[in-house]
Amino acid sequence: MKFSRISFAAIFFGIASAFFSCKAERSGDEILRMNISSEPDSFFPWKSASADSEALWRNIFEGLMTFDTDGKIVPCLAEKVEQSEDGLTYTFSLRKGVRFHNGKEFTSSDAEFSYKNMAGLDGYKPTSAKFGAVKSVRSNGKYEFTVELKEATPSFLLAAISVILPEGYDDQENHPVGTGPYEFVEYAQNQKLVLKKNENYWNKSKAAKIPNVEVYIITDESATISALQSNQIDVATMVSQANTKALKPQFVDHGFPHNLVQILGMNNKVKPFDDIRVRKAVAAAVNKKEIIEGVYNGFAIELYSNFSPVLREYYNDSLENENPFDLKKAERLLAEAGYENGFDITITVPANYQYHMDTAQIIAAQLAKIKIRCIINPVEWATWLDQVYTKFNYEMTIIGFSGKIDPADILRRYYSTYNRNFTRFYNDEFDENFVAAAKELDHKKQVAFYKECQRILAEESPAVFIADPEQSYLAHPRVRGIAGYPLLFHNFAEWYFE
Fold first, then answer.
1. H-only helix segments in 120-200
2. Which helix (H) or strand (E) element contains residue 109?
3. Are 422 and 395 contacting, i.e. CB atoms less than 8 angstroms apart?
4. Using one digit for the tens of pLDDT, what is the confidence trace for 207-256?
C-alpha cells in the first residue's frame, strides 16, 4: 500500500516505533539510518531511471570498472583492461573468487550476459543507450571477456561502470542480487529499504564497516529534521541550506559540489515553446541569482548550459553572457513572437523535492513580470516519471538532471532520437556535434565538440539552466567517511561510526 506525500508525513511519527528503536535500545555501531525524500523507482538497474535510486543500488551492484571521488575510472570486477591499437577491441581480465549475493561465482558468462542485454545483442532488447557502439561480446575462458566495437569509441570505458548482473537469476525486480559490499534485505514500499553487509565481499579493503543500513522515505523536511534531532536517523538528506545552517554546529554538514543541473524544462514541441523567441524570453526573465539565494541560501553555482564546472575539462566557460537576466529583452522577444499580452502555462513539479517546489514559486513570480501566468502543478514522483519523463505530457517542469561522469551521458538528453529527450529538443547541428564527439579519437577535438554542444544548448534554450546546488548530508558528528562523487552515490561502505 502506498502512502501519499501528505499522509506519510502526518503519520510518520505515529508508526515510527515500527521502524525505529529507541536511542537507549540501539546498538550504536550496528545500524546506520538515513532518509531519502523520493520513492525509488526500481532497484533493478536495467529498469531504473532515477538518480536517487541509482545512488542506493550502486551499493548492491558493481561494474567491470568503477569511479573514484574525482571521477577517475578504475578497475572493479575487472582486474585490468587492454585496448587494441585500432581502438575497436577491449579485453577485460576478470577477478577470481568474486561471488554474487546468492552464492553464484562471478565469471565471464555473467559479463557476456549483461553486456548482451545492455547492447541489445542476440535478440535481447537493449537496456542502455551507452552500448550502441558494441558490435559483439564474447567470453575467452572463465575469467576473460572481450568487447568488440563497431567503431572506435574513446569514452567506452566510461560505459563499463554499468553494473553486471548474474546470468540465470530472474528475480531482480523483487530481490536484487549483485556483487557489491551490501546485500538487499527488504524494501517496504514508501517506507524503508534495508541492506546488510556482504560478509563475503571480494575487496576486503573496501568492505562495509557498518553491518546494517536502513534508508527511510521521508518526504517532509520537518519530519526529516525531527527524526535527525531525536536520533531516529543518523544522516539526513534534502535538508534546505537555511535549515542546515540553523542546525550547525549540533550536526555536521558534509557538503560537496553536486554535478547536478537544475533546469526549468520546456516542452519544445508544445506551443508557445516551439518558438525559440519565447524560450529565450523565458530564459531572460529568470533571475538565477535570486533562486540561488532564495532556495539554496547561496550554496549553488549559477549555470548557463546543461553542464556543471565540476566536469572542468569539458565545461564551456564562455557562455556566461549568452542569456543574461534582462526583463526588457524578454518583453521584446515575447512581443516579436506575438505574445505581448503573455500567456497561461502550467509548471509540473515533483512535489517530493522541496527545492524544486520553492524554485517554481520564485520562477512563477519572475515570469509574472512579463505577463506569463504560471499555475504550479505538484505531482507525486511516480506521476512525474510517467507523465513528464516518459510520455512528455507537460508544458514546463522543474527537475534536477543528475551528474554523470561521461559528458555524452549528459548531452544525450538532448539528442533527437534519445527516448528520454523529454524537452523534445531536435537540432541537427547539436546532433552532428554530439555524434562527432563520440567518434573522435583526438581528445582535444572531442572536448571541442562537447563544448560546441553546450554552446548550442545555451543559444537555443530548450530549457533554462539554473544552478548546480551543493550536495549535502547533515549528520550526527559520530558519522564519518562521507564523501562526494561526481554523480549521486551514497557509498555506505566508506561510512563508519567514530
1. 156-159
2. helix 108-119
3. no
4. 999 999 999 999 888 999 999 999 999 999 988 878 888 998 899 999 88
pTM: 0.77
Q: Directed axis angle between helix 428-439 and helix 443-460, to 10°?
A: 160
Q: Distance between CA 47 and CA 250 in Å, rounded?
A: 39
Enter the C-alpha cell of residue 103: 552464492
Give the other-Cβ count within 10 Å of 418's Cβ: 15
90: closest CA among 31, 146, 17?
A: 146
Q: What is the rounded distance in angstroms from the CA atom of residue 260 to the CA atom of residue 401?
A: 6
The Cα–Cα gap between 335 and 343 comes to: 12
- Cα R_g (the chain), whole angstroms: 23
Q: How confident is the model at residue 24 (pLDDT cuts 50, 70, 90)?
A: very low
- The yes-or-no verdict on residue 4 having pLDDT over 80 is no
pLDDT over 50 (residue 35) = yes
SS (H, E, C) 126-145: CCCHHHCCEEEEEECCCCEE
31: left (phi over 0), alpha (psi -120 to 50) or beta: beta
Q: How many CB atoms lie within 10 A of CB 202?
A: 19
| DSSP structure class, residue 104 | P
Which H or E run includes 19?
Answer: helix 16-19
